[in-house]
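Quick entry between incubations.
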Amino acid sequence: MIPLLIANSLALASLLIMMSSGLALIYGLRDVINFGHGALYMLGAYLGYSIAHVAGFWVALVASPILLALVGAALENLVLRPLQRRSHIEVALVTLGLGIILGQVLIFFYGGEARTVDAPLSLAGSVTAFGLTYPIYRLFLIGVGLSSCALLAIWLNFSTSGLHVRAVSQEPSVARMMGIDADRLSLLVTSLSAALAGVAGVLAGPYLSVDPGMDVTMIVSCLIIVVIGGTGSIPGAIVAALLYGFVQVAGSVFLPDLAALAPYALLMAVLLVAPRGIGRGRVLD
Amino acid sequence: MNGQAATRVAYRRGAALVPSARGSRRILAGAAALLLFTIGAFAPQYLANDFLLRLADGGLLLGILALSIAFLMSQAGLVSLGAASVYGGVGYLFAIAMSQWYLSPLAAIVASMVVVTVYAAILGALIIRTTPLAFMMLTLAAGEMISHAVLLEGLRDYTSGADGLVVSFGGTLFGLEAGDFANSARFWPIVWTAAWAIGSAVWAVRRSRLGAVLRATRQNEERMRFSGFDTYGPRLAAFVLANVIAGACGLLHVLNSGFVSPESLGLGLSTNALVSALIGGTATSAGPLLGGVIFAFAQDQFGAHGLTQLLTGLAIVVFIVLFPSGVVGAWRDFAQWIWRNRNREAG
Amino acid sequence: MLEIDKLSVSYGTVHALQEVDLEIAGEGVLHGVIGPNGAGKSTLLDAVSGRRRPTAGAIRYRGQDITRRSVAWRRRRGMARSFQRTNIFQDLTVREQLSLVAWRLGDDRISDVIEVMDLGDYLEERAGRIAYGVQRRVDVALALIGRPQLLLLDEPGAGLSAEETLRLFQHVRDLVGERRIAAVVVEHDVDAVFACCGVVTVLDLGRHLATGVPAEIRADQRVITAYLGSAA
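Done. Structure below.
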């Protein structure tokens, strides 16, 4: 029971980590929460669905994130950069509007019913270990989630561009004085986080399903996570995603009636104790 | 010393000059507003058909809800995503107060508004301290909790779950019967008057010291504290006021429709109200009210084709990027531009 | 007026201030605080004004322990500060912000402040639109409203020319002398401090190094080794 619970919450958390660390990255550079991130995830999922139909799951897992990275670059160049002098709440609302539009366009093309994506043959079926039978695909999901987490940590801590990202996130004015080009970094980061949303979208296909409401469900979860984690803090977001995954899964097992409320209760509880979230994020103003 | 004396003289001269000009303009503006109010209260019943009136009633209700959001946005820089939970919640309270607690309609109104005020004060006291983004999420969270609570099995006897509640009352309320509120033509003057009353109240608060303190706090909270201001109380007051407006609007809605359902609590309605506020412009009282009416008519035009959501998204983007001060603000800018050009030609 | 008792402030593992003792007694005397970068000058001001909670130690203001009092409480009881990074209301006009603060503090004579800070020509301008030097004066002016008893100025000369800084210091010195109030000024510009301050304190690496009249400080061997020597 308990191992299953932990495995399931890790699987959910893997998707959430990829999504919310992307959100936190953009926030760090641009001070903007991308409310359209859920729609990017949905776009990734539908592209993944179409590509997988034609060329198979593995091609989709590569192609969809690449296409999403291009969308991210467009978002940076056409929206975030031109609007960088506007108030952050306004820009956030613009991304909300764009997200709604993207979601509606997808529904227009794909229709309103849910689609299912099959896991590739090599990942179908389940394994038994420690007396627990568990779907291989979910283990794969956990693996990808954790390794993307590790890659992100390595990039942020050991590469020049990663160092610059951290510098801008923590002290934008100082970083600018040091001659760090925030615009170029932001392009990199926005594309990267859109690509991560693409990976999450494709991975979500066989795990959850591809349906018209997936963008809203995901963005609400991610926003809760980012706020709990302390806006802009990536380690905070990761811890919060793990916590969220656990609360969600445990809630649906033990208190199915109240499960939908569990994340909100978690948010309230955390913010009442630590109004700025658990991580050391920057203050949004 | 000379400079000081000169500025003092300048103040005094300004003080002597301004009132006469401003005073007559004020009287003129007041008279125009009164005329507009009177015409607006009675003319539509003769000019418009039942369908249009029903749409206008709904639009103005949405506008009042939008005004609640816009007030908090423009004065405190806080975006609430939970306005509908109070709007719908007050309807449930009103119904439950009459059917379960056997209160008279008037007592039920008072009771539900008291509950809303207390709820807003407690919630606000907890969430006002956080960052604006966290505030937004927490209002969403509180709203979602209320929406889910209504659907709980244990509360089904009170709320009827997803079916919603029919809300009706016997006898009279302010001399009107339930049927009067439900009649779109007779409801119009009521909602029109309410919109003017709430709009004027918001206008007065904006111009008051509280409004000035709120706007300064929005700009620079830290310096306000370092200037001896308590920045928490005023923002809490603004939050409670916004919720009281949303509550009053919800009462009007439930009296008019005679029905309250989980839909009237949901995030969808909060978003529509937010969009209405953006369309009209958040900086004035008239803007959000007008925005609500525009939204209602647009929804009627395009809703049948399933385009409401797409248009909502487009409206958010277009109005924030191109018309950040909304229809009312854009109109004012345009009028000023015409005025200036004409003056230039004349001079 | 102000007694600082074994005050320590840490950010995580960094000790910005360690057991600093200081007494600001002199009424009508400008008290300068100098020291190299990272000496803890701004942290000292932040702790005294309530922006930063001290890790240990106590602050007494007019005989009362105020270590845990709110920022607004301190301001209403006559402790005012200005900021190193201009911290004003960018979208309000100069007059709007001065009169709003004056209303809160029950000061009906903002014309004095306007005159002292020479802001008469900018009253109807939005603060965000005026020159940086004038914005600095608005910052100080906001601190002068309400006839404060203790004035804390954080690098008032930041971003100003040496000449402008000196003029601002002379203004403040005269004001402090006239009103017989206490004032602490943290400053980079050592010349301005020695020219206008009656007492000077030197901080180094979060510790109190020396306090005395300018002549003593100039001659102090420890100060020369730690700070002045390298600056000169």
